[in-house]
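Forwarding these from the shared drive since the link keeps breaking.
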Amino acid sequence: MMGAYGPSLRTATFATFVAAMVLMGSVQLFAHAQAPEPEPAPATEGMPKAAPAAAPAPTTEERYDLKLRELEEKVVSLKEKIFRSKTRLMLLKERILNDVIAEAKLVVEHQNDMGSSFKPIEVHYRLDGETLKLLDNATGTLDTEDAIEIFSGNVAPGNHSLSVEMVYQGDSIFFTYLKDYVFKLRASYTFFATKGKITQVTSTGFLKGDITYNITDRPSIKFKVDQKSYTKDSVVKAAESQD
């Protein structure tokens, strides 16, 4: 029995094995064919990048520190400007002071000492032939007995000539005839203006002589000259007057 069926059985078994192997290969091939293909990665080229996250808002303390720093910077800037301005002012004053001391200061004053019998009409002052000031008494400016400043400023050191004209009208309740008289007084005075000093020249209309003189001969002009050195206060005042 075994000899009769042995080869056939082996043949059938081998055929069954081959068929099983073929079937398994087909199943694997079918499974591979049916497996889904992997999805492609999303394209990134040309797409807008995500915006960076916004910075957190500053806290109240941070805002306070920022404003404090800004204020400090403004204060420092202002201090620097003030310092520069003071420096320029000091240099300017120093230059002016040097100019003041390098020249001669002249002050010219007018004074009326004629009394109530003579009413001032006008005065005319000239320095070296040039008019310094012309004053009339339309507003009563010349009626005062106080000194009136005619000029205050720097002049070249050296000799100078001051010419003065004064016009008076007679005005006396005792000598009524004086109202018919107009007195024109003229006088000149030469003085030396010293470098670095203040020269003050005062011209005064006055009555010369005494009661024994004829009243019409008494009106006259006199001059007074004073010179003084600059003091600290006078130098500063002179510099400030030129600012």
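-- next protein --
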Amino acid sequence: MFKIFSRQGQASPPARAEPALQVSQVPEVHNETGATTIVNYEELGELLGDGSGIAGMSADQAMRTSAVYACVRLLGGAIASMRMEIYRRNGTARSLADDHPLWWKFNEEPCSMMTAPMMWEYFVSSQCFYGDAFALLLRDPRNPTLIEDVIPLDPRSVWVWLKDGRYYYVVSLPMTYGEEMLPVAFDQDDILHFAGPGFNPRTGRSMSVLKYAASRAVPIAQHAEELADKAFTKGNMSDVVLRFPKQLSKEQREDLRNYWVRKHSGLGNVGAPAILGEGGDVAQLKMTAVDAQLLESRSFQVADIARAFGVPPWMIGETSKTTSWGSGVSEMGRGFVLYSVRPYLNRYEAETNRKTFRTARFFAEFDVTRLTRGDPAAEAAYYRQAIGGSQGPGWMSIDEVRARNNLPPLGGTCAQVYFPQAPASGDTNASDGDKGPTGGDPPPNPGTTDPEGIPE
């Protein structure tokens, strides 16, 4: 399925040292930190519980909570909408290496099973629910520096073992399309391991948001939703009282209560007219303190879940104490990128650069400009300054500005960065502002052809 087992019978290159590890020889790990290493799906179910109690909650059950779904969707969607650019270092400068083979893997198709946005969203959900995200780097057996596929792994099927200062990953891979699984050991160089907060170097695993920060908030939110569902399903009949001028017997009260529930409770009887005899009257009760606390509790749980996932509450619809409109929305959006999304990006960039590039001449970095743009007027003023519009030195060319807005380059002087040229001696009429992009000599172009090509 993953083309892993087709390598049997092929000799590994001498320069690569494969881990000398037998799965049967992997010892049982005991730790005193309270962390538990996940070996298979059954142990995961025992670890998280069946969801019947407050403390037990699985990923599938948690995603039935709208606040959890919104947080995971928001974080994953924000990262999936960015491009991971590949850069080439040229001394103190850098240039885009969009012809690098890994650019396609991280931005279009990491493997035949999914697209790059699907992969990044899967990594985010894996970290939210299980603490860590893993991916197998399937290398060319004849050239280990060439990565053929980047295959995301289910965190529940990965077991981490620390030996002699290196991590080894035992992964349960499907032999066929059935349920048979085969444990395979990989060296740390072949696994992208995106750890999260609370990473334990001894166990090689991180803390799960669902198991720790949101372990109480999510079940409580679901219980509050169930209470509200029951109230609306029954037609909220507890808010009605029937009054009669004469005293009713016990049998009459019971018959009247059953009649009223049968005729007026449930969604199918909403709006049915009430017909009472013997001077009967229907009175509507005011909202009780319990009802008010239920509504307040549901609102609080949304904010509590958002806090656990590191997402601003207003971005998932909780706007009771703030606004999601106005001039401050762009600033709050940039704050979301800086404080919520940027930690994920740092982990992805560091692990990718450490294990996918042979030399330090190449590195990967996410382009966050799409999510940090301000209003059009402010953006236009920024670009005007960037190309030297105030007669000062620019730091971007017109073509670079056009590239950020998905426009084709114009070439010529538009590809040059503007530098004002000092007037000649005795020339008092020279004006730098009239020179435009050709007012000075352009800086040396750092994006020259790499004489060595792309080694990866």
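Confidence is low (pLDDT under 50) at residues 1-14, 26-54, 430-439. Residues 213 and 347 are 20 Å apart (CA to CA).

- D.
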